[in-house]
Design a protein that fits this description.
single chain; 281 residues; alpha/beta; Rossmann fold; 17% strand
Length: 281
Amino acid sequence: MVTLGEGSTPLLPVPRLSARLGVELWVKWEGSNPTGSFKDRGMAVAVSRALDRGAPGIVCASTGNTAASAAAYGARAGLPVVVVTSRGSVARGKVIQARAVGVELREIDGSFNDAHLEARRLAEAEGLVNVNSINPDRIEGQASAAREVLEQLGGVPDVLALPYGGGGNTVSYARGFGETLPRFVLGEAAQRRETFATAIRIAEPVHRREVDDVLERSGGQIVSLSEPDLERAWRSLAREEGIFCEPASAAGIAAVEAAGFRDVRVVCVVTGHGLKDPDAV
């Protein structure tokens, strides 16, 4: 098993936000993973399986967190890593993380979806293992977070709130919860192509069809968030509760506020550390 000590992240009560929003709100703080994001859970499994199968290397497309995680776990496993990104679209902190541990970074002119297609082409042409969330090992690894929530909370929350970029984490949590799902509430940027919340700057969610199925089964919803909505939630989490996350990670908080829930137990997944995107501050 290729590991850097991922998982077992804290579930934190946030009393000030709870009182203001009128809910019992908990934060699953994934920024405490080794590279500072939830991606490490799935990457540990995906890279371990790739190593076990004798892969010559791994490849992914990324808005940043996947790049940092793949680079770290690839280095840990002794595997070459190729990362494809959309030119100029990745936050500085994440580029620094990936370069620091050694990675072949290929920037292309185009969207994240274009980068995703290029990563898939490289995997096929060069025999590399694609470690994006289309890899089922990634989904299995990330599903561990839902099982932790069940253990830490002592049961299923009424509502689970998540940022919505590509949708892989939504699919993972649904798998981890099993048959009894909380109501999934997903916060997406209204300006998907140009939001300052770079981690969810994905025009076309890769897992849209699977996400729609999760929402139907859970009675859930997608909340479209303006840039001020995202910024307000991001600032509130830091200044009211001391939790400094990257802007995209506050999308779940913003979605809960916009949805107007009252008197329910909510777990909000905060996906990445604020030092991922220092320029946003």
